[in-house]
């Protein structure tokens, strides 16, 4: 079982969500976040010139838990919708998930996430 975190442009969220649902991935947690990647930093100077801040941009973060055998399909789906070959297309992080429990039914592991 894996935890998959997807960070993408807000305008791509609905297309991505629909593609994931069409591919059979229905369960997800979505957050509005801000951040930045490795693009050159733009600076804002406060009025007193004492503080320099990094600009951040709005992003959407989708968190999902999927079976090991479904990870590549999920990645392919997200890349197909979001790849423009431009900076800011997003990131996908895949991490191991040790266990899962469905509180209502007591189901465990893969049964708890499908």
Order of helices and strands: EHEEEEHEH
Report mean pLDDT, rounded to a whole number. 89
Contiguous uncertain segments of 5+ residues: none
State the share of residues found in helices, binned by percent.
10-25%
Q: Largest beta sheet, briefly? A: 4 strands, antiparallel
SS elements, strand count: 6
Shape, principal axes of CA atoms = globular
At CATH level 3, the topology is Alpha-Beta Plaits
**CATH class group:** Alpha Beta
Percent of sequence in beta strands: 25-35%
Radius of gyration: 17 Å
In DSSP terms (H or I, runs of 4 or more residues), the helix count works out at: 3
Distance between the termini: 11 Å
Question: What's the architecture, going by CATH?
Answer: 2-Layer Sandwich
Q: Number of folding domains? A: 1
Side-by-side strand order of the widest sheet: 2-5-1-6
SS-derived structural category: alpha+beta
How is this structure best described in words?
The protein has 114 residues and is of the alpha+beta class. The protein has a single domain (2-113), classed as Alpha-Beta Plaits (2-Layer Sandwich), CATH 3.30.70. The protein has three helices and six strands. The strands form two sheets. It has a four-stranded antiparallel beta sheet with strand order 2-5-1-6, covered by helices on one side. Strands 3-4 form a two-stranded antiparallel ribbon. Helix 1 runs antiparallel to helix 2. The radius of gyration is 17 Å and the shape is globular. The relative contact order is 0.31.
């Amino acid at each position: 079982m894996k935890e998959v975190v997807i960070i993408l442009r807000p305008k791509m969220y609905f297309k991505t969500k629909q593609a994931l649902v069409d591919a059979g991935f229905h369960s997800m947690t979505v957050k509005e976040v801000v951040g930045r990647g490795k693009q050159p930093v733009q600076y804002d100077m406060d009025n007193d010139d004492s503080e320099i801040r990094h600009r951040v941009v709005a992003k959407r973060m989708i968190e999902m838990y999927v079976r090991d055998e479904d990870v590549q399909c999920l990645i392919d789906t997200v890349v197909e919708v979001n790849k423009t070959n431009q900076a800011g297309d997003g990131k996908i992080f895949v991490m191991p998930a040790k266990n899962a429990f469905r509180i209502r039914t007591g189901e465990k592991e893969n049964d708890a996430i499908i």
